[in-house]
Specification:
By secondary structure, the protein is of the alpha/beta class. It has 2 domains: 8-147, Rossmann fold, CATH 3.40.50; 157-171 and 182-279, HUPs (Rossmann fold). The chain has helices at residues 17-33, 62-84, 97-107, 122-128, 131-138, 172-182, 198-217, 232-242, 263-271, and strands spanning 8-12, 36-43, 88-94, 112-117, 143-147, 157-162, 185-190, 222-226, 247-251, 276-279. The protein has a 10-stranded mixed beta sheet, with helices on both faces. Helix 3 (97-107) crosses helix 5 (131-138) and helix 8 (232-242) packs parallel to helix 9. The protein starts with 7 loop residues before the first strand and ends in a 15-residue tail after the last strand.
Length: 294
Amino acid sequence: MKKFEIKKILIPIDFSDTSKLAISHGAFMAKLFKAELLLLHIVEKNWNPFDIVVPEVKVEEPSDLAKKIQEKLDELAENMRAEYGVVIKTLSTTGNVCDEVVSVSKENSVDLIVMGTHGTSGFEEFFVGSNTYKVVTLSEIPVLSVQTNANHIGFKNIILPIDNSDYSRQKVNHAVVLAKHYACKVSVLGLPDGESDVTEENKFKIKIDQVNAYLEKSGVIHTSKIIKGKNQAKLTMDYADSVNADLLMIMTDQVEDGTFLSSFAQQVVNHSKIPVFSIQPEEHNENIPWVHPY
């Protein structure tokens, strides 16, 4: 399994409060990892005149729009360079938000996408979803989604849910890398199948012990707990709340057609009160190594 590194971070921005939070999280992370930042603004294909950032800045023509956006991006980048001391590049494109984010991330060899999200509910959750949800579904690289109330910058406690899936442990490497850079602890949450028998439960405990052993060997402070129940997403979010966690790390776990996330991933991405670090499984195969030397 390829070692997880963060050398370049992409932050799609629309100048909203949530995208500003994403910028703060992404810039702080770039400083920790000594990574480069790429700020991206995407103008939707169906262009309409609108107010940018402040009502006083009125845009009437597409050419004016591009100019004003670039000015705002450059101003933002300059302020961030002064505050965080990181390398920052800016880019403005036109097209579908989700497609452009994924395309730009590939073209620029990005390691991580950081996006603000409002989350979704009801009809939208199952049929439309937010731009962030769609990017999480389509992206081959990890996506950190930041919610409106994620005002605390930095992480002290990462929730690492481990279930019975073949690829659940693939995210352990990512947790170790983040824990070391942020000097935080990892809370392993075992989520066995709700209808598992005693033999299966014993096998599952061995899996959790292996994760704990690897975290111990890696020098990461950690705790572990096994909780059994039907709605694993709710169990995970409730547990995160009970231990004051500030980051949830999940596998995206797409359903068969690849256009939707699993129920667990979908619920967590759309409803978690804390940032969610989503990782796409490399392969659905237990023989794929899930650890590497840090």
